[in-house]
């Protein structure tokens, strides 16, 4: 239901000022929309929410929208650049690549983005995926053709981003396209029949028709099918536009296109898997690269040799150019025909001088070469690398001219459209560097990538563990499991492992001179795998501590920084602690560093980090709490968030009770380091698809989201990026925060496709509006919550226990019941003796009740599934009374551990 | 049965220095392979490549280059002599019909023309310039250009069967390594050791052009090989590993390829000049092809202008493939494009002749001939004395076989399973004798008792007596018996008395000698101790030309010429040599075959001769690769097409078996073996069987049984393996079926129980009761179907045996009728196999790895990752 309205970006109906937009153009991908569009776009969503919300509608829908406006998508960074060769404009000054449903236009000289042409958004909220881009062969303008998933070909002006022409393709989707070298408006395309959903990966069995398209000025399209193939992977056209070759797996098809649409097709089945194809510009040669690293020259592009009948078995003279030891990913010829460029897994660009057989190399490119393009003026080579990098080399010097790097983790070797972060390979999450506020995450194997999400720039790659790049098997490559920084950024701790056998904990010290981290201490096999890692915030007079939790040995260790002399620092294990042979999976320090929280199974244990003798407290929300996967102290407040994949408990440590609980499928949780603010990514419905997610910004005081945003792109990780101006003194008042939670902060969301969506406070005019309505923000936000999830009837488990807003009195009552439930649920051996509890328990039970409230309580029980948000309308005392039996009942219905039952019944007997 | 598997024989082959196909004009399907010691092997190239005969060279001879000549056009002198067209036509026809001539030259500074029939030099002349490095016949086939050590090219006139020094070219200050004639014979191209390719005017004898190749390092480049293609392009291969294609008019390099990692030693081109092969120290045979190319400049202009078409097509050489057939330096490659099977033959230091089809190169796998002469075996075995005699060059080596515990197992078991026996006495090296002969030995044999050894070089046979001092054979004395070749064993007019085949009869009373001139003489050797020898009989069955018959008539003996009626081409007669001989066990008959394919069986004691009818007809013409008499004195004739004939001499007809089973019936595997049968062994215990062996297999053929299915798996080991697999699979299936039927029964029982439970305990099941029952029904139905098939089978009594038999038949194994042509490939590089006793076989191998150990080190090639 809610997930089907894939209103991703256009939900934010903002109209940025022209100046702002112009400013953003140079460095950010602006995803703004026009006002008119947004009106039509958001209407279905509003209609739906109205329908769902009607019985309990108590807020003005307009106000809802205002709440949304407090946060908006500011920019989209990262993403996959391309895994094929890039496209140069016909005058060689620009290059294009299809990036996330838009064409990004870059300057060749400095790889700066000039323009982002977002496809046509009239069809829907999201631009259709662009399958192929072709530079406009017409040299009078700098244009680019796009072929997108909505069966359309469009011609754009690369300088202005203006749509020049649009054609509807009758044959289907053009997945690969190559310009006809002789006619500027003709293309050779691999067409897929029916338009398929964007996310559907291209399989090897997809059927294609290789077609010649002619796009006329008047908008008509002429198609001319040449031949059919299944699983076309590459297409190339000879300079005389008479010969077209395509390959798929082991098959190579060479077709001669004669005048009057006559096609003679020759097909060969290879013994080796084909990986690259190119025609020699001069000689009748087809170069075929294969998985064994050979580039075979087929002397077959000759009508006399092949004859006019379709052939498949005719012997062709072939000679091999063999340098690559691994798969040849790309082959390209310089226009003169004397030079051939090739690249493969070795990360080396090989330049072949064909006449002499001499070779030159551009080595150490950093990753597998996936594509090579030569600019039309032959002055630049563009090398596309597997680690999501495009490097522009000068043809004359072979020196690096410019480099463009995306997130290396978004592996571009995946088949197009099926690119997604590999499962179990993304373990670090998004870590924000405490001083530079760059995002740190998994890079290539054994590496961390430092990336600036705001400027969309790769900053640096940190090699944590070295490995042999080529020829190795995938499982032997190292992997960085975790990374954390100390709060002043002086220390970095990493955990890397190799095929789950070797495991190293490394402490890195920041060299102030070079601003690089240098390895200070390496601890081999700290545990049998480390599941969590945290630095202690610095405490005066105490050495810096770091805590690791073991994945296999059920203990956590505290590591302490030792200093010998002036600058010889090293880390040693200070203490090891365990709790009931449970496995710790998460760890957190309080903001002042005095308390260490470790999650053991479903319990949160609090420790004195200096001693770690025994847990100072054990917090258990309920016996059914699944094993916790995360823990965090919220800002500098006394709240502790503990979450697993299905629920989030917010503990108030002052009271020692669960403040509130959010029971919904969670994808990621992040906590702001200073401000009491947390962000949660959750599935929109318990059985929704992985992409139907929404983002909630929450204050620790209340489960009612300050802001809820649908985020239909899926969520892999979240992080708050504080803007550099945010200081501790800049701590705003609660009301201001609630109204504008992301003021001066950014929320970065990493999607499974490798995009970094940056959310920030909305532009000024909306913000003011939001502030003016701040007083009603809480009420509105609860409605907004319902807006997202519909009525709570639809998701009865969404909020199991809810506290009202900041009414302390009421909260304290809840706390009391929570304390009881904690006692009841806690393992009996950690509980104080029953005699000690008795007085407190009885006091709580003996709360004065009136017949009135009892009556309401029964009615409440009957209507248990009514909206929880409505409870704050009720009288406070009512809530207090009703919540208690509900808790006990819950316990009983959920599970019946005999001893709990007996205890409770015993208590009840006593109280009654 | 006991098998002596001998690997001690240390035959060290000579490296191959030259390979040349006989000229295409001569219709003489031979290739000459020259070995470094001067021996020239002649291989038949029709069908399989089969070794036919070896021309022995001088002792310690040398051979660097070989060339054929076959003059088909009359020279100017001839035209003056034959002035009428009729005479000229006759003379031309005569020339065309005559056999091609073979010349060889080497470092011993002698140019020799060989008599291809008598296996002796026909003419020999001094090179007048020291060692000869290269030699080439001009295209008119009238002159030989010889490049020598001293830097001169010398021209020898070879018209009218002569070989006469004619003229000498100007001197070059380095040795001339390669020479080639242009197609119009007007220029000679030489490559020399001073990095130059020179073009000489053949008429004026001065240098037309000197084309210098670049040097790598300080040493000058050696131009090892030069050829001229039909269109005039000069191709040179040099010590830098490069192959250069020269423009003949401009005299510049048009294209150059770094073809090999080291020196290019040999180049060859097909007749049309569209394909060139090169190889050398880097033993990689590289192929170049002339292919259509585009004009580069043109296409660049084309894509810029956007309108023009590609028009001008030039032809360019392309490196079109390579393949490594050899482990060591390749010294010679030859390509025949005139033969219907289009062969490339290559050879070099690794002494193996490798050949494959030229057209599919490099995708074709090569056939490798063994390093030793596969036919006309160099091994002979004294069956009574358990001695092995091996011939190499001019030396003879004698070994005594070891002894082992006797085993009483059947031959078939032995061949299939193999069982190592306890050796209590190892083989013993008895004798190594170097004979004082002028040429390398042509033939050798040892008598069954081991007391006599006969050996022959090109000059004549010699007989040696071998006496052993004691039983342990610690000392061996060898004495030449001086009076041996009795005066009449060849007629007085014979020029060469060399024996190509010699054999003792089983009772050691007779020695049968086949001479190079085609006589088969029977010598009485009963009185060898008193040096009394007598020629009993001389058979002249292989001398069939009229002139020979006339000559023979003049001699005193019994010149029977039963094959006279045979119409043989002049070429065949001129090069006819007796290639194999067999003496029957009872000493009654001797069978001989010659290279024209005729087989004659002669009586040893009498004068009777039988001519075996010609084998095969026309296209399918075959010739015997070996001859042998089986235990019943039937002549077994394996042929070059891998057929097997059996001829009953007494009946004067092929046996019934042979008549019934034509070539089409021979099992495919046997028929398609690349190497031909080199000998036939017979076991006295199994009179109906013969064991045909070649270098790669021994095949037992039962002559009472039909050849068996065409597609049968012949290799007994492979067959056993397949049998085991099939039987194991069927057993597994049977067990599976049994298990399933058992399970089925159990499940039925369970289902009946389960149904009851279901009735009561629906609540325990997650699924809705309705769907559960439906699902169960479906499942039950599915199972029921299974039941019908599986459960019934045991009751029907599925015949597992017949299943096995049927599957075996599918796989090519007929279990019901026993297989004939049972082959084993356990023994490889097999030099000889014969029976020395009942059920006791000697198998002599020369493993390639042992030969390779004796060879010089090869070109070292870096391997990736090693």
Uncertain stretches of 5 or more adjacent residues of chain A: 1-67, 415-420, 726-739, 766-809, 849-897, 899-912
Largest beta-sheet details of chain A: 4 strands, antiparallel
β-strand amount of chain B = 35-45%
Largest sheet of chain B: 4 strands, antiparallel
**For this entry, what is the oligomeric state of its chains?**
heterodimer
Mean pLDDT of chain B: 84
- How far the N terminus sits from the C terminus of chain B, by CA atoms, comes to 46 Å
Strand content of chain A: 35-45%
User: Which residue ranges of chain B are poorly predicted, with pLDDT under 50 across at least 5 consecutive positions?
Assistant: 295-312, 759-796
Average predicted local confidence, pLDDT of chain A: 74
With strands numbered from the N-terminus, the spatial order across the biggest sheet of chain B is 2-3-4-5
Number of strands of chain B: 57
What gyration radius of chain A follows from the Cα positions, in whole Å? 31 Å
Radius of gyration of chain B: 34 Å
Q: Largest interface, counted with CB-CB under 8 A?
A: A-B, 26 and 26 residues
Counting DSSP H or I runs of 4 or more residues, the number of helices of chain B is: 13
Identify the strand order in the major beta sheet of chain A. 1-56-55-54
The N- to C-terminal Cα distance of chain A equals 48 Å
- Please identify the structural class of chain A as seen in this structure: alpha+beta
Global shape of chain A: elongated
Query: Shape of chain B from CA axes?
Result: globular
């Amino acid at each position: 239901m809610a997930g089907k309205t894939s209103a991703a970006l256009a939900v934010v109906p903002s109209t940025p000022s022209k100046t702002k937009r112009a400013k953003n153009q140079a460095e950010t991908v602006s995803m703004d929309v026009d006002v008119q569009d947004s009106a039509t776009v958001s209407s279905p969503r509003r209609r739906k929410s109205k329908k769902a919300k009607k019985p309990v509608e108590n807020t003005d829908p307009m106000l809802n929208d205002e709440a949304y406006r407090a946060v908006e998508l500011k920019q989209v960074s990262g993403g996959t650049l391309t895994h094929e060769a890039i496209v140069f404009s016909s005058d060689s000054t620009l290059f294009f690549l299809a990036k996330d449903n838009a064409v990004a236009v870059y300057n060749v000289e400095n790889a700066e983005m000039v323009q982002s042409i977002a496809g046509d958004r009239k069809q829907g909220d999201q631009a259709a995926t662009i399958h192929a881009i072709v530079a406009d062969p017409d040299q009078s303008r700098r244009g680019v053709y796009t072929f997108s998933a909505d069966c359309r070909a469009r011609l754009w002006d690369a300088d202005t981003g203006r749509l020049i022409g649009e054609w509807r393709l009758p044959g289907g989707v053009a997945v690969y396209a190559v310009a006809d070298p002789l006619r500027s408006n003709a293309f050779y395309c691999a067409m897929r029949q029916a338009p398929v959903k964007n996310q559907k990966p291209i399989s090897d069995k997809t059927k294609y028709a290789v077609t010649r398209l002619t796009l006329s000025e008047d908008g008509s399209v002429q198609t001319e099918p040449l031949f059919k193939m299944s699983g076309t992977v590459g297409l190339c056209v000879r300079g005389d536009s008479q010969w077209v070759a395509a390959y798929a797996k082991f098959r190579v098809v060479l077709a001669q296109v004669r005048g009057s649409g006559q096609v003679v097709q020759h097909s060969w089945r290879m013994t080796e898997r084909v990986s690259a194809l190119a025609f020699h510009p001069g000689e009748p040669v087809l170069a075929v690269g294969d998985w064994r690293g050979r580039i075979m020259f087929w002397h077959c592009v000759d009508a006399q040799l092949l004859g006019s009948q379709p052939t498949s078995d005719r012997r062709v003279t072939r000679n091999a150019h063999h340098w690559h030891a691994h798969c040849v990913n790309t082959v390209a010829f310089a226009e003169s025909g004397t030079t051939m460029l090739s690249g493969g897994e070795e990360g080396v660009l090989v330049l072949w001088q064909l006449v002499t057989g001499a070779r030159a190399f551009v080595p150490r490119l950093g990753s597998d070469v996936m594509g090579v393009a030569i600019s039309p003026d032959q002055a630049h080579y563009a090398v596309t690398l597997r680690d999501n990098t495009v490097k522009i080399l000068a043809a004359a010097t072979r020196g690096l001219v410019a480099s463009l790097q995306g997130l290396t983790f978004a592996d571009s070797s995946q088949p197009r459209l099926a690119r997604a972060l590999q499962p179990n390979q993304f373990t670090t999450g998004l870590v924000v560097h405490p001083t530079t506020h760059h995002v740190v995450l998994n890079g290539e194997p054994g590496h961390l990538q430092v990336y600036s999400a705001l400027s969309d720039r790769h900053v640096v790659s940190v090699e944590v563990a070295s490995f042999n790049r080529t020829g190795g098997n995938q499982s032997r490559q190292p992997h960085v499991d975790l990374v954390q920084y100390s709060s002043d950024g002086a220390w970095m701790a990493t955990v890397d492992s190799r095929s789950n056998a070797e495991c190293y904990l490394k402490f890195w010290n920041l060299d102030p001179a070079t601003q690089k981290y240098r390895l200070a201490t390496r601890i081999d096999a700290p545990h049998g795998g480390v599941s969590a890692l945290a630095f202690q915030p610095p405490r005066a007079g105490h050495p810096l501590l770091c805590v690791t939790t073991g994945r296999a040995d059920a203990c956590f260790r505290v590591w302490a920084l030792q200093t010998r002399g002036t600058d010889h620092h090293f880390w040693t294990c200070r203490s090891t602690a365990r709790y009931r042979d449970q496995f710790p999976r998460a760890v957190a320090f309080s903001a002042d560093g005095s308390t260490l929280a470790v999650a053991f199974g479903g319990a949160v244990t609090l420790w004195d980090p200096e001693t770690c003798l025994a847990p100072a407290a054990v917090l258990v929300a309920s016996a059914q709490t699944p094993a916790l996967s995360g823990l965090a102290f919220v800002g500098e407040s006394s709240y502790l968030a503990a979450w697993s994949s299905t629920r989030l408990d917010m503990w108030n440590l002052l009271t020692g009770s669960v403040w509130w609980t959010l029971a919904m499928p969670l994808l990621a949780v992040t906590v702001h380091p200073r401000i009491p603010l947390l962000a949660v990514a959750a599935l929109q419905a318990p059985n929704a698809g992985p992409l139907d997610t929404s983002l909630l910004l929450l204050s620790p005081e209340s489960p009612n989201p300050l802001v809820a945003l649908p985020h239909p792109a899926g969520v892999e990780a979240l992080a708050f990026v504080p803007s550099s101006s945010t200081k501790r003194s800049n701590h705003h008042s609660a009301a201001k925060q609630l109204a504008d939670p992301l003021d001066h902060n950014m929320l970065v969301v990493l999607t499974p496709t490798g995009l970094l969506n940056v959310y920030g406070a909305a532009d000024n005019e909306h913000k003011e509006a939001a502030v003016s309505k701040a007083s009603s923000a809480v009420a509105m936000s609860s409605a907004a919550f319902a807006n997202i999830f519909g009525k709570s009837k639809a998701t009865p488990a969404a909020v199991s226990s809810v506290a009202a807003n900041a009414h302390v009195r009421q909260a304290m009552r809840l706390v009391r019941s929570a304390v009881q439930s904690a006692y009841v649920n806690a393992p009996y051996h950690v509980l104080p003796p029953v005699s000690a509890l008795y007085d407190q328990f009885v006091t709580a039970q003996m709360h004065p009740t009136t017949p009135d409230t009892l009556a309401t309580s029964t009615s409440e029980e009957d209507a248990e599934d009514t909206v929880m948000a409505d409870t704050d309308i009720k009288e406070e005392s009512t809530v207090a009374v009703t919540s208690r039996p509900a808790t006990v009942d819950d316990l009983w219905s959920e599970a019946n551990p005999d001893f709990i039952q007996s205890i409770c019944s015993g208590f009840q007997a006593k109280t009654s | 049965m006991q098998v002596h598997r001998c690997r001690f024989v240390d035959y060290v082959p000579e490296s191959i220095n030259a390979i040349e196909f006989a000229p295409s004009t001569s219709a003489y399907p031979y290739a000459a392979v020259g070995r470094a010691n001067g021996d020239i092997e002649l291989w038949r190239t029709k069908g399989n490549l089969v070794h036919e005969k070896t021309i022995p060279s001088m002792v310690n001879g040398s051979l660097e280059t070989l060339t054929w000549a076959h003059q088909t056009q009359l020279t100017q002198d001839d035209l003056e002599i034959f002035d009428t067209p009729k005479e000229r036509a006759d003379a031309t026809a005569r020339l065309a019909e005559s056999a091609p001539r073979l010349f060889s030259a080497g470092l011993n500074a002698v140019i020799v023309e060989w008599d291809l029939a008598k296996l002796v030099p026909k003419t020999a002349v001094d090179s007048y310039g020291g060692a000869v490095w290269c030699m080439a016949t001009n295209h008119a086939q009238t002159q030989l250009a010889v490049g020598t050590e001293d830097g001169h090219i010398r021209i020898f006139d070879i018209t009218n069967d002569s070989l006469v020094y004619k003229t000498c070219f100007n001197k070059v200050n380095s040795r001339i390594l390669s020479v080639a004639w242009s197609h119009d014979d007007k220029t000679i191209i030489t490559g020399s050791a001073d990095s130059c390719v020179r073009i000489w005017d053949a008429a004026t004898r001065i240098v037309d052009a000197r084309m210098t190749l670049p040097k790598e390092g300080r040493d000058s480049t050696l131009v090892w090989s030069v050829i001229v293609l039909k269109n005039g392009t000069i191709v040179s291969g040099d010590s830098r590993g490069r192959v250069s294609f020269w423009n003949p008019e401009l005299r510049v390099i048009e294209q150059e390829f770094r073809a090999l990692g080291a020196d290019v030693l040999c180049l060859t081109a097909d007749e049309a000049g569209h394909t060139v092969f090169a190889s050398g120290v880097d033993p990689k045979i590289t192929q170049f092809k002339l292919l259509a190319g585009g004009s580069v400049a043109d296409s660049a202009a084309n894509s810029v202008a956007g309108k023009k078409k590609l028009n001008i097509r030039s032809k360019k050489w392309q490196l079109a493939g390579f393949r490594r057939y050899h482990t060591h330096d390749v010294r010679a490659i030859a390509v025949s494009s005139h033969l219907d099977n289009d062969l490339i033959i290559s050879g070099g230091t690794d002494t193996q002749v490798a050949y494959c089809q030229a057209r599919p190169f490099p995708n074709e796998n090569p056939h490798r001939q063994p390093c030793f002469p596969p036919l006309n075996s160099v091994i002979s075995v004294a069956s009574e004395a358990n001695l092995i005699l091996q011939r190499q060059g001019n030396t003879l080596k004698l070994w005594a076989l070891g002894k082992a515990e006797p085993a009483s197992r059947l031959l078939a078991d032995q061949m299939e399973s193999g069982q190592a026996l306890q050796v209590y006495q190892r083989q013993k090296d008895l004798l190594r004798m170097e004979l004082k002969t002028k040429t390398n030995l042509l033939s050798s044999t040892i008598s069954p008792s081991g007391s006599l050894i006969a050996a022959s070089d090109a000059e004549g046979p010699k007989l040696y007596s071998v006496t052993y001092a004691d039983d342990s054979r610690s000392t061996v004395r060898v004495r030449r018996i001086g009076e041996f070749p009795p005066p009449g064993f060849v007629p007085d007019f014979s020029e060469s008395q060399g024996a190509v085949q010699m054999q003792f009869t089983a009772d050691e009373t007779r020695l049968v000698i086949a001479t190079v001139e085609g006589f088969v003489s029977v010598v009485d050797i009963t009185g060898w101790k008193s040096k009394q020898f007598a020629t009993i009989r001389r058979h002249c069955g292989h001398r069939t030309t009229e002139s020979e018959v006339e000559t023979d008539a003049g001699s005193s003996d019994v010149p029977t010429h039963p094959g006279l009626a045979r119409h043989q081409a002049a070429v065949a007669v001129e090069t006819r040599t007796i290639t194999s001989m067999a003496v029957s066990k009872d000493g009654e008959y001797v069978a001989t075959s010659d290279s024209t394919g005729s087989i004659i069986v002669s009586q040893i004691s009498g004068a009777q001769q039988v001519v075996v009818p010609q084998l095969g007809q026309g296209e399918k013409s075959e010739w015997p690769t070996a001859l042998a008499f089986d235990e019943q004195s039937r002549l077994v004739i394996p042929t070059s097409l891998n057929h097997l004939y059996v001829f009953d001499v007494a009946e004067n007809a092929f046996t019934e078996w042979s008549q019934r089973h034509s070539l089409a019936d021979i099992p495919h595997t046997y028929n398609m073996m690349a190497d031909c049968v080199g000998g036939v062994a017979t076991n006295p215990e199994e009179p109906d069987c013969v064991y045909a062996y070649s270098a790669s297999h021994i095949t037992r053929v039962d002559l009472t049984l039909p050849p068996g299915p065409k597609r049968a798996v012949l290799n007994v080991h492979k067959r056993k393996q397949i049998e085991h697999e099939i039987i194991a699979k069927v057993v597994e299936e049977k067990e599976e079926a049994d298990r399933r039927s058992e399970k089925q029964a159990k499940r039925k029982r369970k289902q009946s129980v389960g149904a009851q439970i279901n009735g009561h305990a629906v609540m325990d099941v997650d699924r809705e009761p309705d769907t559960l029952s439906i699902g169960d029904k479906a499942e039950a139905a599915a199972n029921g179907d299974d039941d019908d098939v599986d459960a019934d089978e045991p009751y029907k009594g599925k015949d597992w045996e017949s299943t096995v038999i049927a599957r075996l038949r599918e796989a090519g194994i007929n279990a019901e009728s026993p297989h004939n042509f049972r082959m084993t490939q356990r023994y490889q590089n097999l030099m000889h196999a014969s029976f020395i006793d009942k059920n006791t076989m000697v198998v002599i191998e020369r493993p390639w790895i042992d030969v390779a150990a004796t060879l010089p080190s090869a070109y070292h090639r870096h391997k990736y990752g090693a």
